[in-house]
Amino acid sequence: MSKNIDALSYVIRGKNRRDVLKTLGKHALLRQADVAKLAKMYRTHARRTLLELEDKKLIKCVNEKESQGKLYQITPSGKTILKELNEIYN
Fold first, then answer.
1. Residues 81-87, mean pLDDT to the nearest whole number
2. Cα 12 from Cα 30, distance rounded (Å)
3. Please, what is the end-to-end C-alpha distance for the chain in angstroms?
4. What is the pLDDT, as a whole number, of residue 3?
5. What does the pLDDT look like over 55-73, one tens digit per residue?
6. Which residues of 69-89 are buried (b: 16+ CB within 10 A; e: fewer)?
7. How far apart are CA 6 and CA 36, in angstroms?
8. 5-35 pLDDT, tens per residue?
9. Distance separating alpha carbons of residues 27 and 8, to the nearest angstrom
10. Domains of the chain with bracketed CATH
11. What is the pLDDT of residue 46?
């Protein structure tokens, strides 16, 4: 079981959080618009979810200083949570 049970519980409770984390787990870098398209959600929902996951240190923005076209990637902590999600849901 995860050392960070709070983060795992947090991601499990939100479908958008699960979907965004899974999407970022399949791709090296993605923009907000790409995440929204691949996860099949509104861009505003994708943005809010990206900020939530970034706050929990499960993903990171690799070009924070850009005002547009920000790129996101999953962190090692996010990969651990994703692996545990896959064990639970598969």
1. 93
2. 22
3. 15
4. 64
5. 999 999 999 998 899 999 9
6. ebbbebbebbebbbebbeeee
7. 25
8. 899 999 999 999 999 999 999 999 999 999 9
9. 20
10. 5-77 (1.10.10.10)
11. 97
Q: Are 75 and 68 in contact (CB under 8 A)?
A: no
Both tokens assigned to 32:
């907000």
In this structure, which long-range contacts are made by residues 23-27, counting pairs with CB atoms below 8 Å and at least 24 apart in sequence?
24/59, 24/72, 24/73, 24/74, 24/78, 25/74, 25/78, 25/79, 25/82
Which residue in this structure is represented by tokens 């692996």?
A: 83
Per-residue pLDDT, 53: 97
